[in-house]
Amino acid sequence: MLASIAIIPGLIALWIGFTRGPHYAFIFVYLPSMLLLPEYYRWVISGLPSPTFSLGAAFGTAAAFFARGAPGYRFHAMDLLVFSFVLTAFYSEFRVSGYKDAQNLLINLTAWAVLPYIFAKSLVEPAGLRVLFAKTLVVCLFIISVVSVYEFRMGTTPWRMILDPFFPGQARWVTTFRWGFARVAGPYGHAILAGVILVIGYRIQRWLEWSGAWDPKPKYAPWLPISQGRLITLGILAGVIMTMVRGPWMAAILASMLVIIGRSRQRVAAIAVVLGLLIFVGVPGIIWFLDYVSVGRQGAQTVAQESAAYRWELLTKYADIAGEKLWFGWGLNDWPKVPGMPSIDNYYLLLLLMHGLVAVISLVAIMLIMLVRLTAHGMRQPLAEPRGSSLAFTLASLYLAIAFSIATVYLGLQTVPLFFMITGWGIAYLQSGVEGLGGEAAAAPIEVAPPYRFRRIMT
């Protein structure tokens, strides 16, 4: 019964949602639960879906959200792509494993994809909570970075040290090392997932810092010779560095190029420079990479080369297997495994194997549509002042970072709800037409009156 603590965030979200409103439950309960608590722990309940910390918080928030009439929700065509992704995965699993397993997958994906998307689309921009949402997200990731210094130094994550006794035998993730240091994973299972999430947080924090959203001095340490915004930026950047993951690092560089275009006073010239740089560096880089990985794992001279060769071999070894069930895949775990290649370190390939081409098309369409729409929107706007305060280019850069990163790792655990949350936020931002730090709420957060009122009489 110790594992029953997994439902505590759900109970808190339910209470906050019905007493203060779903906006508060989403930002102050669901978002911290999803970012600060591991997703690999579950309360295993016989015959029922096994809740995680964030799954309970998602459904607790959803109960209040729908009971209040889904405040702020407006249908958008992107909804269909999100639903398509989830329903395709459900149908794929149903074809292979039957209804029970498909039902559990549907419940998980509802909590991981549909609800975060709807929450972010409905409860942030329409309620004028853009800055509060972004600040809560980056503060959570700043906390992760600070706590993870222990993991970086000692080689074990505090999250497992504290929570393993409550969930015996569930945590199969182990700390990996590179260059003599532990690669920080925080509560995200693997360092690469942590790297993706922290890169996203870094870019959002840079937007907040450039926009002047933070107080000049840290609230609880005004004596520090650094601004509050810069302190949080450096903290999250340190977290990104401590993950020591090459894929997300390269993704962060690509994302920064898109942000540079948004910051430039001569955007057309900036685009030309960036494209020229990508061609000048990218074409020789591709040629070098193909030569680098062509030696195979047996001929690799370094661990890095062996890792790159392994990822390249994945594509060639699994191509025929994926083609056998091209449209809807083999299901979550039933594709034939190639001996010696148990890990599919490419989410596009993994998704193709699991749920087929329809699911891959849905995911890629979401990323491409959002990247193009946000970039086009940013290009149509005048140069944001202060420079760098364009939310359009910041959000667009996140899709570039994610699209590149998941070619080297799977989209799993907290990266899934974060991806769909960003998508919901991006859609609502485009619908709002409000730039900068945001304006007045279109639909103010609901303050629910307490069920009982008492009058004090002084005698």
Written description of the protein model:
There is one protein chain. This protein has 459 residues and is mostly helical. The chain has one domain. The protein is 64% helix and 1% strand. The chain has 16 helices and two strands. The chain has a two-stranded antiparallel ribbon with strand order 1-2. A hairpin with a 2-residue loop joins strand 1 and strand 2. The C terminus is likely disordered.
Notable characteristics:
single chain, 459 residues, mainly alpha, two-stranded antiparallel sheet, 16 helices, globular, disordered C terminus
Runs in which pLDDT lies below 50 for 5 or more consecutive residues are 448-459
- So how many helices? 16
The major sheet is characterized as:
2 strands, antiparallel
Number of structural domains: 1
For the record, give the distance between the C-alpha atoms at the N and C termini, rounded to a whole number.
Answer: 51 Å
Average residue-wise pLDDT: 89
Quaternary organisation of the protein chains: single chain
Brief write-up:
With 459 residues, the protein is mainly alpha-helical. It has helices at 8-19, 22-36, 53-67, 77-97, 99-123, 130-154, 158-163, 191-210, 228-243, 246-263, 267-293, 296-299, 303-324, 347-380, 391-405, 415-432, and strands at 177-178, 181-182. It is found in: Membrane.
